[in-house]
Automatic annotation (TrEMBL):
InterPro entries from the UniProt entry: Ribosomal_bS21 (IPR001911), Ribosomal_bS21_sf (IPR038380)
Pfam families: Ribosomal_S21
Family per record: Belongs to the bacterial ribosomal protein bS21 family.
One GO molecular-function entry: structural constituent of ribosome
An annotated GO cellular component: ribonucleoprotein complex
Native organism taxonomy: Bacteria, Pseudomonadati, Thermodesulfobacteriota, Desulfovibrionia, Desulfovibrionales
A biological-process GO annotation: translation
Superkingdom of origin: Bacteria
Keywords: Ribonucleoprotein, Ribosomal protein
Protein name, per record: Small ribosomal subunit protein bS21
Length: 66
């Protein structure tokens, strides 16, 4: 669980930015968005396959440019 300890010299804005980075790094917001609505396992599988295909095409395009 992300958490930030504020020192005497730390400003609130600095601490807030630090906390937001920790939350983003932990993937809490993406997990929350994913769990907002129930998704059937078959749709999850289709999305996962589409993402894998997209990554593969991007990798191929990147290799062709070089």
């Amino acid at each position: 669980m992300p958490g930030v300890y504020m020192g005497d010299s730390d400003t609130f804005d600095y601490s807030l930015r630090k906390f937001k980075k920790q939350v983003e790094k932990a993937g809490i917001l993406s997990e929350l968005k994913k769990r907002q609505h129930f998704e059937k396992p078959s749709i999850q599988k289709k999305k996962k396959e589409a993402a894998a295909k997209k990554r593969l095409l991007k990798k191929i395009r990147k290799l062709q440019v070089m």
